[in-house]
Known about the structure:
By secondary structure, this protein is α/β, with parallel strands linked by helices. The protein has 7 helices and 9 strands; from the N terminus they run E-H-E-H-E-H-E-H-E-H-E-E-E-H-E-H. The strands form 2 sheets. A 7-stranded parallel sheet has the order 3-2-1-4-5-6-9, sandwiched between helices. Strands 7-8 form a two-stranded parallel sheet. Strand 5 (about 115-125), helix 5 (about 145-165) and strand 6 form a beta-alpha-beta unit. The relative contact order is 0.14.
Amino acid sequence: MQRNVFLAGAAGAIGSRLGPMLVAAGYAVSGTTRSPERALELESKGVTPILVNVFDRDALIEAVVRCAPSVVIHQLTDLPNNLDPALMNDAVVKNARIRREGTRNLVDAALAASCPRIIAQSIAWAYAPSTLSCKEEAELDTHATGARKISIDGVIALETCLLTTPGLVTTLLRYGQLYGPGTAHLKVNGSVPIHIDAAAHAAILALKQDASGIFNITEDSASVSNHKARAILGWTPDFRL
């Protein structure tokens, strides 16, 4: 029996790579976007487009219930093209709101649709400063200030909502700094980088294996450990489409 997947953020950097991978793996994928133009792109890739704003709670619930998914995949972000520095201050606030309010609406929609499972995007550079290779149980940087505080507060809200909602099985993928096609950087960027294809592949593996919990999805790094994803998901950072 074909499994239905509701992919929130299907036209984003990871979502646009993940949607076709899910279709190729035999899943029936419904994917959200706010853009009619991107809806056409999704359709051309075999993804059923859903025009909806995650902040429209009632419309989102209706869309997820109609899809009747066995899993919801949360890849929503609100970031400018090429991470334009002139727009990033505003984008940090918008992205935190997606993580805080958008996640809550998506969880409510999944529960309304009797969907027991969510796989969600988080970030791997939110750990408290440390000289050690951070594992998933390490403390997040709750003492951050400025724009970093806004981002990390959003991440904490997202993760807390997903991990504490009764009746919901959650997989959190803490992605490193993305690079590759469709991102702001074609080559390795940041202290904990990850290629966009390897990031999407982690979501596929988590889905196929019904894996739950928190996983760092980064390239080999002195600051963040990817051992758990390698050991449990069978994931490697060198995957490319």
